[in-house]
What we know:
The chain has six helices and nine strands. By secondary structure, the protein is of the alpha/beta class.
Amino acid sequence: MRVPGRRSPSEKLGDMVESQIRRRGIVDPRVLDAMRSVPRDRFVPAKLRHAAFRDGALPIGHGATISQPYIVALMTSALEIDRDGLRVLEVGTGSGYQAAVLAECGCEVFSIERVEALYDRTRALLSDLGYADRVHVRLGDGSRGWPEAAPFDRVIVTAAAAAVPSALREQLAPNGSIIAPVGDERGQVIRRYRLEDGRWTASDLEGARFVPLIEDARPETR
Ligand code: SAH
């Protein structure tokens, strides 16, 4: 039954995309459609579901956050997904929201999370929502990349570091690009690195606040 004055999750999702994303200049139809398709409310903890469509990041436990919708859209758009089937490495699976948006954009996603509890929960959620065949998740230190699945057409890092780990650069395909927040707790900028004809170029997009990328001392993958 429709309660007058109450908006459904899909109406709220439409409003979120219109007012927070399209109106701020993100126009890539692939990204806008993907953001309308992924049920963001399923990726936030149950007790924060009322806040799922808010214009900000939310805590998801274990020191992690689900990024602000606009930042997810900005980074996805910056990846320049121009065809189906791009292989994308994500470092920092967290809630799985960014990975699901990439899957809806037509990518095959390889996503790594270092916190086991988040990895377990998110793997189950992505499977429940039907993303298991397009999003592969792994437990471990993503700063080492995923050598067995390399090379990647695109790399997205969703935790901040002073520099992009060299393993991620080495696992990028020719003419690929990396989007990553670079900086520390005091300030970060989302930067795009491109590998064109063997040369790296970098450009800065926008300021951001991501949780830190933690590089583990011991190898731990499964
Ligand atoms: N993309 C996520 C954002 C998660 S926040 C989303 O859409 O929800 C960043 C995540 O990076 C956290 O879950 C944190 O545990 C994880 N992380 C930090 N350092 C990492 C590392 N070296 N390898 C893999 N994951 C890491």
